[in-house]
Specification:
Rossmann fold, Hect, E3 ligase catalytic domain fold, five-stranded mixed beta sheet
């Protein structure tokens, strides 16, 4: 029986060894039944909620490769899903392909009525956890403590009123309250003053970045140079905390089960919790009122449709379709989005320079959209999706496979070592029979079992042979499909680019000869299970990009 294993933890704050522990227990469960865990079919995901299957690529890949295994193992079925719809979907896939899933914790199969009952309880756990968390935060706010987060201009200070201590005698905070941070408060006052004096939010962001003012939450911008953005200026202007009023529970976030994305919903005003404290006030009431009058006046200057959205396409307010490269480009200098910088999206430029100023990014390029699309598509057709690169992809894929396979000499040494392990295990078993207990031998037995499992996996790959001709046909078909998609509709072209780039983006930078340069790294997977005999689980990825031969993507 071939086994796949899935392990998951919901948050990085849990034990870092938790997925490893889950996998070890699943392997022990399989070994006790004489089943084989396929090393390539172990999926481990950390920091991912079980509320939706759609944001878990590891689980989805295992299900997509369902024909490569017989049994799916997990420590508990709550690791697979905490949503009854997702568990039902997994059961349906298993039933269709005549497969089974077990949780190692109870040895219960997923079709057992007890497993179905536990699935309902696991789903209710999320509901109860959400309600308990909300109730606890609500009580904290009503007692005058913060409900989480800390706005720019304040510092969070622990409050010790009850005198509680932990078992070691260390004082335990009852909660946290905000106090004005005068250094940051001065920046907040400057934002309100400049806005009232006529500066726009984008101009204020430029000014603060040029002056080197510390932005809100600089640690959250770890992948970029911390800086002020127009959205952060707008958030400060609209936050009533700066007039001494704290409003909690104004909105809630709900996760879309189909996409895994969160969406914000406004709560009715009757559910808001308001707290007033002049100690929180940073700007005067007069300045606050003037800033909001200015905000309303400027808002009315922009034409909007009945839903309040800005009119972006003449007078109709219709939403334009995305262009081919929208969202796939980034500035080579600062890492910000490289997108349409005018109203019609006819020219592309760096969004961070536009919104945050030339101190943050000096890339002042303005590139025609048609030219950048033509260069990308042309380079993909002429320099990436070519017969030479097909041969290169086949060669690299075969190299990857051959590294995983063992030669006849390797096979002999693996079989010899496997025989040694069996003799060592027999000797330990005889010793334990004399002593009457395992003692320190238990650790040795576990190590031998793990080594035996790895050797068995390596030997299982020894007879794998790849049909080079079929592999080449597969890669050609895929590249031709991508080529056709790039010259079809923007939707198909975007889908093709997404499959090549994965989560990467193309970097646009200056070039003294050609005006601008685009660099990127593409990859496409090769499913060797379709061209291998026997069909042993194998999957290879070939990457084409700068630094690889042939160097295919410096446009």
């Amino acid at each position: 029986m071939r086994c796949a294993v899935y392990a998951r933890i919901s948050t990085d704050k849990q034990s870092a060894d938790s997925p490893g522990d889950q996998i070890d227990r699943c392997v022990q469960f399989a070994d006790a039944r004489g089943w084989t865990v396929v090393q390539d079919l172990i999926a481990e995901e950390s920091g991912i909620s079980g509320s939706s299957r759609h944001n878990r690529p590891g689980l989805l890949e295992l299900i997509a490769r369902i024909d490569e295994w017989d049994v799916l193992l997990c420590w508990e079925f709550s690791r697979l899903a905490r949503d009854s719809e997702d568990l039902g979907w997994i059961r349906n896939r298993l039933r269709l392909h005549k497969r089974i899933a077990y949780e190692a914790a109870s040895a219960m199969d997923i079709f057992n009525v007890g497993a179905k009952i536990m699935g309902v309880l696991n789903e209710e756990f999320l509901v109860k956890l959400r309600l308990d968390t909300h109730r606890g935060l609500s009580g904290r706010v009503q007692r005058g403590f913060s409900g989480g987060g800390c706005p720019h201009g304040y510092k969070s200070v622990p409050v010790y009123e009850s005198g509680r201590t932990d078992p070691r005698g260390v004082a335990v905070a009852d909660g946290f309250r905000w106090e004005v941070d005068e250094n940051q408060a001065e920046t907040v006052r400057k934002i309100f003053t400049e806005y009232v004096n006529g500066l726009g939010i984008k101009a204020i962001a430029h000014m603060l970045n040029a002056q080197g003012a510390v932005p809100p939450r600089p640690r959250a911008q770890k992948h970029h140079k911390p800086s002020w953005s127009p959205s952060s200026i707008r958030s400060i202007l609209l936050n009533p905390i700066y007039r001494g009023e704290y409003i909690w529970n104004r909105s809630e976030w709900a996760k879309d089960h189909e996409t895994g994305r969160r969406k914000r919903y406004e709560r009715p005003e009757s559910e808001w919790i308001r707290q007033h404290d002049d100690a929180w006030r940073i700007v005067t009431e007069d300045l606050w009122q003037k800033a909001h009058e200015q905000f309303k006046h400027r808002r009315q200057a922009y034409k909007r449709n009945r839903q309040g959205r800005l009119l972006t396409n003449g007078k109709t307010g219709a939403v334009r379709g995305k262009h081919l490269l929208a969202g796939f480009l980034e500035c080579a200098e600062c890492g910000g989005n490289f997108y349409g910088i005018n109203h019609h999206g006819r020219r592309y430029g760096c969004s961070w320079r536009r919104d945050r100023g030339n101190v943050v990014c000096s890339n002042d390029m303005s590139v025609p959209r048609g030219e950048i699309e033509e260069r990308v598509v042309g380079a993909l057709q002429d320099r990436v999706l070519t017969p030479e690169n097909v041969s290169y992809a086949v060669h690299r894929a075969l190299e990857i496979v051959e590294r995983r396979l063992c030669t006849n000499a390797d096979r002999g040494s693996l079989e010899a070592r496997l025989a040694e392990i069996e003799r060592e295990e027999e000797n330990i078993v005889r010793l334990v029979a004399k002593l009457g207990h395992l003692g320190a031998n238990e650790h040795v037995l576990n190590e031998l079992a793990e080594e035996r499992r790895k050797l068995a996996f390596s030997l299982a790959q020894a007879d794998l042979k790849v049909d080079r001709a079929m592999l080449e046909v597969q890669i050609k078909d895929r590249l031709n499909h991508l080529d056709d998609a790039l010259h079809d509709s923007p939707e198909r072209g975007r889908s093709a680019l997404r499959s090549l780039l994965r989560k990467r983006r193309l970097r646009v930078g200056k070039d003294p000869v050609r005006g601008f340069r685009i660099d990127g790294q593409l990859e496409f997977g090769v499913d060797l299970a379709l061209v291998a005999s026997p069909a042993v689980s194998q999957r290879a990825t070939v990457v084409a990009g700068t630094g690889f031969e042939p160097a295919t993507f410096g446009l």
